[in-house]
Amino acid sequence: MLESVLQAFGLTDEFQKVETFGSGLINHTWKVTANGREYILQRINQIVFNDPEAIAFNINLVAEYLKANHPNYSFIAPVATAGGSTMYYSRKEGFFRLFPFVKGSFSKDVVQTPGQAFEAAAQFGQFTKLLCKLDIHQLKITIPAFHDLTLRYRQFLTALENGNQQRIQESTELIDKLVAHADIVEEYNRIQTDASFKLRVTHHDTKISNVLFDAQEKGLCVIDLDTLMPGYFISDVGDMMRTYLSPVSEEEQDFSKIEVRVDFYKAIVRGYFNEMNGELTETEKHSFFYAGKFMIYMQAMRFLTDYLNDDVYYDAKYPAHNFTRAGNQLVLLEKLIAKEEELALVPEGLF
Questions:
Q1: pLDDT tens for each residue of 255-274
Q2: Which of 84, 166, 316, 326 qualifies as a cystine partner to 303, CB 3.0-4.6 A?
Q3: In sequence order, which ranges of the chain are alpha helices (DSSP H)?
Protein backbone atom coordinates (compact mmCIF):
# COMPACT_ATOMS: atom_id res chain seq x y z
CA MET A 1 0.00 0.00 0.00
CA LEU A 2 2.72 2.48 0.98
CA GLU A 3 5.21 1.63 -1.76
CA SER A 4 3.79 4.13 -4.26
CA VAL A 5 3.58 6.79 -1.55
CA LEU A 6 7.23 6.33 -0.60
CA GLN A 7 8.28 6.40 -4.25
CA ALA A 8 6.46 9.71 -4.67
CA PHE A 9 8.71 11.17 -1.96
CA GLY A 10 11.84 9.83 -3.64
CA LEU A 11 12.34 6.80 -1.42
CA THR A 12 12.98 4.51 -4.36
CA ASP A 13 15.27 1.96 -2.70
CA GLU A 14 13.67 -1.02 -1.07
CA PHE A 15 12.85 0.27 2.37
CA GLN A 16 14.18 -1.57 5.36
CA LYS A 17 11.30 -1.08 7.77
CA VAL A 18 7.85 0.49 8.07
CA GLU A 19 6.26 0.39 11.51
CA THR A 20 3.30 2.04 13.20
CA PHE A 21 4.51 4.94 15.31
CA GLY A 22 3.26 7.11 18.15
CA SER A 23 0.00 7.33 20.10
CA GLY A 24 -1.92 9.87 18.01
CA LEU A 25 -5.64 9.22 17.63
CA ILE A 26 -6.36 11.28 14.50
CA ASN A 27 -3.83 10.62 11.73
CA HIS A 28 -2.27 7.26 10.96
CA THR A 29 1.50 7.50 11.52
CA TRP A 30 4.43 5.29 10.55
CA LYS A 31 8.17 5.42 11.12
CA VAL A 32 9.98 4.61 7.89
CA THR A 33 13.61 3.58 7.46
CA ALA A 34 14.65 4.03 3.85
CA ASN A 35 17.68 5.17 1.84
CA GLY A 36 19.72 4.96 5.04
CA ARG A 37 17.55 7.57 6.79
CA GLU A 38 14.54 7.66 9.08
CA TYR A 39 11.27 9.45 8.39
CA ILE A 40 7.81 9.97 9.83
CA LEU A 41 5.01 9.29 7.36
CA GLN A 42 1.42 10.34 8.07
CA ARG A 43 -1.91 9.80 6.38
CA ILE A 44 -4.27 12.70 7.05
CA ASN A 45 -7.64 11.89 8.60
CA GLN A 46 -10.01 13.54 6.15
CA ILE A 47 -13.01 13.08 8.42
CA VAL A 48 -11.43 15.50 10.90
CA PHE A 49 -9.47 17.57 8.34
CA ASN A 50 -11.54 17.91 5.20
CA ASP A 51 -9.03 20.25 3.53
CA PRO A 52 -5.57 18.69 3.86
CA GLU A 53 -4.18 21.19 1.38
CA ALA A 54 -4.93 23.95 3.90
CA ILE A 55 -2.73 22.15 6.43
CA ALA A 56 0.08 21.89 3.89
CA PHE A 57 -0.30 25.57 3.00
CA ASN A 58 -0.02 26.67 6.64
CA ILE A 59 3.00 24.49 7.36
CA ASN A 60 4.80 25.68 4.22
CA LEU A 61 4.00 29.32 5.08
CA VAL A 62 5.42 28.93 8.58
CA ALA A 63 8.45 27.00 7.33
CA GLU A 64 9.33 29.75 4.86
CA TYR A 65 8.80 32.50 7.44
CA LEU A 66 10.96 30.80 10.07
CA LYS A 67 13.69 30.01 7.55
CA ALA A 68 13.82 33.66 6.51
CA ASN A 69 13.46 35.27 9.94
CA HIS A 70 14.56 32.70 12.53
CA PRO A 71 16.84 30.24 10.73
CA ASN A 72 18.24 28.84 13.99
CA TYR A 73 14.86 27.53 15.13
CA SER A 74 14.65 23.75 14.84
CA PHE A 75 11.59 23.62 12.63
CA ILE A 76 10.90 20.21 11.10
CA ALA A 77 9.93 21.06 7.53
CA PRO A 78 8.09 18.44 5.44
CA VAL A 79 9.82 16.55 2.66
CA ALA A 80 8.70 17.50 -0.85
CA THR A 81 7.70 15.02 -3.54
CA ALA A 82 9.45 14.90 -6.90
CA GLY A 83 6.82 17.34 -8.12
CA GLY A 84 7.61 19.82 -5.36
CA SER A 85 4.48 19.27 -3.27
CA THR A 86 4.65 18.57 0.48
CA MET A 87 1.36 16.66 0.36
CA TYR A 88 0.90 13.54 -1.76
CA TYR A 89 -2.57 12.46 -2.84
CA SER A 90 -3.58 8.92 -3.73
CA ARG A 91 -7.12 8.29 -4.95
CA LYS A 92 -7.25 5.01 -3.07
CA GLU A 93 -5.47 5.99 0.14
CA GLY A 94 -5.91 9.75 0.52
CA PHE A 95 -3.39 12.43 1.54
CA PHE A 96 0.11 11.74 2.90
CA ARG A 97 3.01 13.84 4.11
CA LEU A 98 6.57 12.94 5.11
CA PHE A 99 8.89 14.48 7.72
CA PRO A 100 12.51 13.71 8.56
CA PHE A 101 12.87 11.90 11.87
CA VAL A 102 15.05 13.85 14.31
CA LYS A 103 17.63 11.44 15.68
CA GLY A 104 18.05 11.52 19.43
CA SER A 105 14.65 13.14 19.91
CA PHE A 106 11.58 11.69 21.57
CA SER A 107 8.10 12.72 22.60
CA LYS A 108 6.10 11.92 25.71
CA ASP A 109 2.53 10.74 26.15
CA VAL A 110 2.23 11.86 29.78
CA VAL A 111 3.69 14.83 31.66
CA GLN A 112 5.61 13.31 34.55
CA THR A 113 7.48 16.27 36.10
CA PRO A 114 7.09 20.04 36.47
CA GLY A 115 10.32 20.36 34.47
CA GLN A 116 8.70 18.69 31.49
CA ALA A 117 5.67 20.99 31.82
CA PHE A 118 8.01 24.00 31.91
CA GLU A 119 9.89 22.90 28.80
CA ALA A 120 6.72 22.22 26.85
CA ALA A 121 5.15 25.55 27.84
CA ALA A 122 8.33 27.35 26.84
CA GLN A 123 8.34 25.63 23.46
CA PHE A 124 4.75 26.58 22.67
CA GLY A 125 5.37 30.11 23.90
CA GLN A 126 8.52 30.45 21.82
CA PHE A 127 6.76 29.15 18.72
CA THR A 128 4.03 31.79 18.95
CA LYS A 129 6.53 34.53 19.79
CA LEU A 130 8.74 33.78 16.79
CA LEU A 131 5.70 34.03 14.53
CA CYS A 132 4.28 37.18 16.11
CA LYS A 133 4.98 39.26 12.99
CA LEU A 134 3.57 36.75 10.52
CA ASP A 135 0.35 38.04 8.97
CA ILE A 136 -2.22 35.70 10.52
CA HIS A 137 -4.69 36.52 7.76
CA GLN A 138 -2.53 34.44 5.44
CA LEU A 139 -3.25 31.32 7.47
CA LYS A 140 -6.04 29.01 6.36
CA ILE A 141 -8.61 27.60 8.78
CA THR A 142 -8.14 23.84 9.08
CA ILE A 143 -11.00 23.21 11.55
CA PRO A 144 -13.61 26.00 11.52
CA ALA A 145 -14.64 27.31 14.96
CA PHE A 146 -12.39 24.72 16.65
CA HIS A 147 -12.15 26.57 19.99
CA ASP A 148 -15.21 28.78 19.63
CA LEU A 149 -16.78 28.41 23.08
CA THR A 150 -19.85 30.41 22.08
CA LEU A 151 -20.59 27.90 19.32
CA ARG A 152 -19.91 24.94 21.60
CA TYR A 153 -22.39 26.30 24.14
CA ARG A 154 -25.05 26.71 21.44
CA GLN A 155 -24.43 23.14 20.34
CA PHE A 156 -24.86 22.03 23.95
CA LEU A 157 -28.20 23.87 24.24
CA THR A 158 -29.35 22.33 20.95
CA ALA A 159 -28.49 18.88 22.26
CA LEU A 160 -30.64 19.58 25.33
CA GLU A 161 -33.58 20.21 23.00
CA ASN A 162 -33.03 17.55 20.36
CA GLY A 163 -30.78 14.93 21.93
CA ASN A 164 -31.43 11.48 23.37
CA GLN A 165 -34.11 12.11 26.00
CA GLN A 166 -33.13 9.18 28.19
CA ARG A 167 -29.51 10.32 28.24
CA ILE A 168 -30.60 13.89 28.99
CA GLN A 169 -32.53 12.65 32.03
CA GLU A 170 -29.56 10.60 33.19
CA SER A 171 -27.26 13.61 32.83
CA THR A 172 -29.24 16.15 34.86
CA GLU A 173 -26.46 16.71 37.40
CA LEU A 174 -23.78 17.28 34.76
CA ILE A 175 -26.09 19.51 32.73
CA ASP A 176 -26.83 21.65 35.77
CA LYS A 177 -23.12 22.05 36.48
CA LEU A 178 -22.38 23.16 32.93
CA VAL A 179 -25.20 25.69 33.02
CA ALA A 180 -24.02 26.93 36.42
CA HIS A 181 -20.61 27.75 34.92
CA ALA A 182 -22.00 29.62 31.91
CA ASP A 183 -20.13 32.70 33.14
CA ILE A 184 -17.10 31.13 31.45
CA VAL A 185 -18.92 31.52 28.14
CA GLU A 186 -19.83 35.11 28.98
CA GLU A 187 -16.17 35.89 29.64
CA TYR A 188 -15.21 34.38 26.29
CA ASN A 189 -17.83 36.55 24.57
CA ARG A 190 -16.24 39.58 26.19
CA ILE A 191 -12.75 38.51 25.11
CA GLN A 192 -13.84 38.37 21.49
CA THR A 193 -14.69 42.08 21.56
CA ASP A 194 -11.70 43.16 23.67
CA ALA A 195 -8.87 44.68 21.64
CA SER A 196 -6.46 43.73 24.45
CA PHE A 197 -6.80 40.11 23.38
CA LYS A 198 -4.81 39.54 20.21
CA LEU A 199 -5.24 36.90 17.58
CA ARG A 200 -1.89 35.21 17.02
CA VAL A 201 -0.44 32.16 15.33
CA THR A 202 -1.72 29.49 17.71
CA HIS A 203 -1.02 25.76 17.84
CA HIS A 204 -4.39 24.76 19.38
CA ASP A 205 -3.26 21.26 20.44
CA THR A 206 -0.62 21.64 23.13
CA LYS A 207 -0.60 18.19 24.66
CA ILE A 208 2.86 17.03 25.74
CA SER A 209 3.17 14.58 22.82
CA ASN A 210 3.37 17.54 20.45
CA VAL A 211 6.76 18.61 21.81
CA LEU A 212 10.07 16.97 20.89
CA PHE A 213 12.63 16.57 23.68
CA ASP A 214 16.34 15.79 23.57
CA ALA A 215 18.19 13.24 25.68
CA GLN A 216 18.50 15.77 28.53
CA GLU A 217 14.71 16.34 28.44
CA LYS A 218 15.12 19.85 27.09
CA GLY A 219 12.51 20.96 24.58
CA LEU A 220 13.63 21.03 20.94
CA CYS A 221 10.56 22.22 19.03
CA VAL A 222 6.82 21.75 18.62
CA ILE A 223 5.33 19.33 16.11
CA ASP A 224 1.93 18.37 14.64
CA LEU A 225 0.76 21.66 13.15
CA ASP A 226 -2.52 20.40 11.72
CA THR A 227 -4.53 22.76 13.94
CA LEU A 228 -2.22 25.74 13.41
CA MET A 229 -4.57 28.70 12.94
CA PRO A 230 -5.19 32.22 14.22
CA GLY A 231 -6.31 32.05 17.84
CA TYR A 232 -6.11 33.45 21.35
CA PHE A 233 -3.34 32.53 23.78
CA ILE A 234 -5.95 30.96 26.08
CA SER A 235 -6.31 28.07 23.63
CA ASP A 236 -2.68 26.97 23.95
CA VAL A 237 -2.29 27.72 27.65
CA GLY A 238 -5.71 26.27 28.44
CA ASP A 239 -4.96 23.00 26.68
CA MET A 240 -1.73 22.68 28.64
CA MET A 241 -3.69 23.25 31.85
CA ARG A 242 -6.24 20.65 30.86
CA THR A 243 -3.71 17.97 29.97
CA TYR A 244 -0.79 18.68 32.35
CA LEU A 245 -2.35 19.61 35.70
CA SER A 246 -3.92 16.30 36.65
CA PRO A 247 -1.93 13.07 36.99
CA VAL A 248 -4.74 11.25 35.14
CA SER A 249 -6.39 11.95 31.78
CA GLU A 250 -10.03 12.42 30.81
CA GLU A 251 -10.24 8.63 30.42
CA GLU A 252 -9.91 8.04 34.18
CA GLN A 253 -13.11 6.61 35.72
CA ASP A 254 -11.95 6.92 39.32
CA PHE A 255 -12.53 10.63 39.88
CA SER A 256 -10.76 10.52 43.25
CA LYS A 257 -7.49 10.38 41.31
CA ILE A 258 -8.15 13.75 39.67
CA GLU A 259 -6.23 16.65 41.19
CA VAL A 260 -4.69 19.99 40.30
CA ARG A 261 -0.94 19.89 40.84
CA VAL A 262 0.10 23.40 41.86
CA ASP A 263 3.77 22.89 40.94
CA PHE A 264 2.75 21.90 37.41
CA TYR A 265 0.53 24.98 37.14
CA LYS A 266 3.42 27.24 38.15
CA ALA A 267 5.73 25.45 35.71
CA ILE A 268 3.34 26.19 32.83
CA VAL A 269 3.16 29.83 33.91
CA ARG A 270 6.93 30.25 34.08
CA GLY A 271 7.63 28.37 30.86
CA TYR A 272 5.09 30.25 28.79
CA PHE A 273 5.83 33.67 30.28
CA ASN A 274 9.56 33.23 29.85
CA GLU A 275 8.86 33.45 26.12
CA MET A 276 5.66 35.47 25.85
CA ASN A 277 5.90 38.01 28.68
CA GLY A 278 6.88 40.82 26.32
CA GLU A 279 4.26 39.87 23.77
CA LEU A 280 1.18 39.50 25.99
CA THR A 281 -0.87 42.54 26.95
CA GLU A 282 -1.51 43.30 30.61
CA THR A 283 -5.12 42.15 30.23
CA GLU A 284 -3.98 38.84 28.76
CA LYS A 285 -1.46 38.30 31.55
CA HIS A 286 -4.18 38.61 34.15
CA SER A 287 -6.40 36.15 32.27
CA PHE A 288 -3.97 33.27 32.53
CA PHE A 289 -6.02 31.39 35.14
CA TYR A 290 -9.12 31.83 33.00
CA ALA A 291 -7.38 29.94 30.20
CA GLY A 292 -7.56 26.75 32.25
CA LYS A 293 -11.24 27.21 33.03
CA PHE A 294 -11.96 28.02 29.39
CA MET A 295 -10.47 24.86 27.94
CA ILE A 296 -11.52 22.39 30.64
CA TYR A 297 -15.09 23.68 30.61
CA MET A 298 -15.27 23.54 26.81
CA GLN A 299 -14.00 19.98 26.69
CA ALA A 300 -16.42 18.84 29.40
CA MET A 301 -19.24 20.40 27.42
CA ARG A 302 -18.13 18.83 24.13
CA PHE A 303 -18.00 15.37 25.72
CA LEU A 304 -21.46 15.72 27.25
CA THR A 305 -22.93 17.22 24.08
CA ASP A 306 -21.64 14.23 22.13
CA TYR A 307 -23.09 11.84 24.70
CA LEU A 308 -26.52 13.49 24.42
CA ASN A 309 -26.23 13.21 20.62
CA ASP A 310 -25.52 9.45 20.83
CA ASP A 311 -21.73 9.65 20.43
CA VAL A 312 -21.50 10.92 16.86
CA TYR A 313 -18.09 12.61 17.19
CA TYR A 314 -15.87 11.05 19.85
CA ASP A 315 -15.09 7.37 19.77
CA ALA A 316 -16.97 5.68 22.62
CA LYS A 317 -15.61 2.32 23.73
CA TYR A 318 -18.49 1.70 26.15
CA PRO A 319 -22.02 3.19 26.39
CA ALA A 320 -21.24 5.80 29.05
CA HIS A 321 -17.77 6.67 27.80
CA ASN A 322 -18.45 10.29 26.85
CA PHE A 323 -20.62 10.73 29.95
CA THR A 324 -17.65 9.63 32.07
CA ARG A 325 -15.26 11.89 30.18
CA ALA A 326 -17.58 14.85 30.77
CA GLY A 327 -17.85 14.07 34.47
CA ASN A 328 -14.09 13.70 34.71
CA GLN A 329 -13.49 17.11 33.17
CA LEU A 330 -16.10 18.78 35.36
CA VAL A 331 -14.35 17.43 38.44
CA LEU A 332 -11.07 18.84 37.13
CA LEU A 333 -12.78 22.19 36.47
CA GLU A 334 -14.22 22.36 39.98
CA LYS A 335 -10.88 21.45 41.54
CA LEU A 336 -9.17 24.15 39.52
CA ILE A 337 -11.77 26.76 40.49
CA ALA A 338 -11.31 25.76 44.16
CA LYS A 339 -7.68 26.92 43.85
CA GLU A 340 -8.48 30.18 42.08
CA GLU A 341 -7.64 32.39 45.04
CA GLU A 342 -4.26 30.66 45.35
CA LEU A 343 -3.35 30.45 41.67
CA ALA A 344 -4.97 33.37 39.90
CA LEU A 345 -2.31 35.77 41.20
CA VAL A 346 0.66 33.52 40.35
CA PRO A 347 1.56 35.38 37.10
CA GLU A 348 1.83 38.69 38.97
CA GLY A 349 5.02 37.47 40.58
CA LEU A 350 6.66 37.29 37.15
CA PHE A 351 6.23 40.88 36.00
A1: 999 999 999 999 999 999 99
A2: 326
A3: 3-8, 52-69, 114-130, 149-162, 165-170, 172-180, 183-192, 233-244, 262-276, 282-285, 288-308, 321-338, 340-343
